[in-house]
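Service request form, structural biology core

Requester: graduate student, group of Dr. S.
Request type: structure prediction, single chain
Budget code: on file
Notes: please return the result as structure tokens.

Sequence provided:
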Amino acid sequence: MRSEVALPFARHGLREMFLAFLFSSALAAGVWFLYPPASPAPFLLFLFVLSFFRDFNRAVPADPDAFVSPADGRVTEITDVTEETYIGGPAVRIGIFLSVFNCHVNRTPWPGAVEYLKYSPGLFLDARHPDCGPKNESNALGLRDPDRNVKMLVRQVAGLIARRIICTAKKGDVLQKGQRFGMIKFGSRTELYIPKDRVGSIAVKVGDTVHGAKTILGRLK
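Core staff response, request fulfilled:
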């Protein structure tokens, strides 16, 4: 699986970017006939779509004990939970809300083999609320690192605006820390679950802004 891109845009957004360009061009042509000075204004929509699908390469922290953020956004939750589907017991859940202004590419928080994948249909509640996780449409990806004997679970959660989850990883894929594995289109939530007994420290707090593959969320024991 390729982890880098040649252009600074997510390939999963090419269709939306093309349609936004066509729509903006048609609208600009209509505005030009009515009021030529305002004809560039419709291209603001195109620029917004380009911004949404931006996807730049990032340097992953070299700290061997650090797990990194799986998404860009704002930390809305750090709580102890019981995660039975893959972790199989007590875990720390870190919830990240992605607004329409964030980059929506998801990245792996820790290296490992994809051992678990599960898509769950559901609702499209406001992704800022912690309770939306088990109710909304979601996709869960479980990673196991045999070298450190640790598992982590990343859940992509659709939101009020987001209506499409993309996951390019497949069972058996071996992913590196910070590698791209999918995205959620237009406003969403990403959750990271780490076994509680393996968490050495948490490096962020609720309200912090984080960047996928770049921000250290915490360190393992």
